[in-house]
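does this look right to u?? nicotinamide-adenine-dinucleotide version
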Amino acid sequence: MRKKVLVTGGCGFIGANFVRIALQSRPEWEIVNLDKLTYAGNLANLKDIQDKPNYHFIHGDICDQELVQKLFRDHAINTVVHFAAESHVDRSITGPEAFIQTNIQGTFVLLETARKEWLENTNGISEHRFLHVSTDEVYGSLGETGYFREDTCYDPRSPYSASKASSDHIVRAYHHTYGLPTLLTNCSNNYGPYQFPEKLIPLIMNNALTGKPLPVYGDGKNVRDWLYVQDHCEAILEVIERGTLGESYNIGGHNEKQNIEIVRLLCDMLDEKVGPCHTGKPRRDLITFVTDRKGHDRRYAIDAGKIEAQLGWTPKFTFEQGIDKTVDWYLENREWLEGVMDGSYQQYYQTMYGNR
Ligand code: NAD
Ligand code: DAU
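got this back:
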């Protein structure tokens, strides 16, 4: 059966990387990308593939039940890869409502449409798949030791992680109650090309390139487990094609780093690659410790043993390789970064498709 894939949030960071990788490695797939183009959605992220005959962009909201149903019918969707979300923890602290709406209600609309279209109207759905892309933040915060496993109890602590945990539970309920063919992935912090410069690595890149202060929350010793985005996308492809229905898979790269280590490393890499900043001083001088994030989770670390044992997935990139590729990408794509920073990226839609 030819895969007709609804990708939600395909103009965001991970979604855009996924669409590009999927079209390269699975050229027989048809991909429909439904994206609302919030501040985080950028059509230019997929500029190079926008004219492919097996790729279609649809501007719209996953909460719009009529639109979602129409897409399922018009494109005979048999696979959903659901990325669309409000994804930034700091924004969820200052404005949680959009997180509840998109992350919980939006996921519900997609599940309910899949249930109606696949389970009520269609025979023979054995190859249909609904994959929900989630986060390790649903497990809460770790102490100095230990890892998140698939059977770790959920303990979300920010409005963002609570909204993702809610949607995970609804996904599981749709499998258990209705037999919807769902899959769930919980991944650690991603980094790589096209990440919006509100997240730590691209924010530090942007500020360090433009000589602005580099804000480090609290004591800078919070730990995140970093994974290069291509590795995450390839893990998702494995789970769609070979994952066991109803199960979840943790995805991570065993790359635990304190935030301050990352910031110092980026300073040193930039000093080496492009020379010191305009003051002539090393970029480490720009590091500024600022008030901590409210409720800041201390440490995340993933045990990815299940996906490795069951599906044979392991990351291809070491942290050193991934961060080098990432820094080079931002240096070679200064126009992309500047377009996002000055807001002109939002005009790309008009150039492509006329008035909204
Ligand atoms: P992102 O913020 O870069 O992109 C989100 C995309 O979703 C944007 O294109 C946005 O326009 C779109 N969107 C938002 N609301 C929408 C709506 N109502 N309808 C349609 N489209 C909408 O996010 P990201 O970092 O690429 O994350 C993608 C997914 O992966 C999210 O579900 C996130 O929770 C999950 N995740 C992210 C990470 C990470 O490190 N970034 C790690 C694990 C899991
Ligand atoms: O763990 C997976 C999650 O990783 C995803 O589910 C989220 O969508 C994604 O945004 C990310 O969440 P984090 O909160 O870990 O990512 P962020 O880049 O915002 O922050 C990483 C760490 O750096 C965190 O400890 C906070 C800190 N930080 C962040 C920013 C933006 C700073 O010290 N300074 C900053 O300016």
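The domain at 4-193+228-253+301-316 is CATH 3.40.50.720 (Rossmann fold). idk if thats expected tbh
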